[in-house]
Structure prediction request, 139 residues.
Amino acid sequence: MSLGSTLNPNDIKEGDDVYFECNIRANPKEHRISWYHNDQQVTQNMSSGVFISTKSLVLQRVMRRDAGLYTCRAANQIGEASSQAVYLRVQLSTGGTASELRYRAASERDYGSLLCRATNAVGRQKKPCVFQIVPAGNL
Prediction:
């Protein structure tokens, strides 16, 4: 089993689509393939973005809860076998709401609005922080 060949396992972020491929060689041919996330069977759920096809599992718009170990299990009339587990790591933003700014106005032109954005490995902040700088006593 493997994470989709076009995906970088170190760059999966919340909201991304991912897929797994179950690579099976069975004789006699497998008649059932099932998928597991942290040892719990995964079932198709189109409204949640979980799609199961012949030998692949697709997860649309992954979230924090989708991180963990994935395995596929194949069965034929002789028996059943599980793949090695593949760990899905989902990077996420912290959703923090606190911002701090240390700033000293040196002249009248230094007052007004200051905007800032943070960037990290997950991406760039969508909505900037806005600080209103006013002279002391002008609140």
The chain is about 0% helix and 35% strand.
